[in-house]
Write a sequence for this structure.
């Protein structure tokens, strides 16, 4: 997957990465419809190799759901 395959659902859509206090973000991978989440690293437990935990505020998820029309 390339960055160009991602549609930004939250923050300043189409804007630069994480400026103007618009992070974290949720993206949709247009190649397979998957959801990509960018957020602060969470260290609650060690995930499996190749995985990561991120923490994002509820309002960011709500914004993403609204953008998708769910």
């Amino acid at each position: 997957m390339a960055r160009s395959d991602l549609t930004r659902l939250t923050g300043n859509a189409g804007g630069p990465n994480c400026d103007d206090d618009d992070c974290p973000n949720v993206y949709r991978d247009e190649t397979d419809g998957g959801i990509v989440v960018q957020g602060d690293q969470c260290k609650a437990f060690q995930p499996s190799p190749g995985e990561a935990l991120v923490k994002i505020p509820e309002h960011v998820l709500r914004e993403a759901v609204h953008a998708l029309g769910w």
Summary: The mean pLDDT is 87. The longest strand covers residues 25-29. The beta strands are 6-8, 25-29, 35-38, 40-41, 54-55. The radius of gyration is 13 Å.
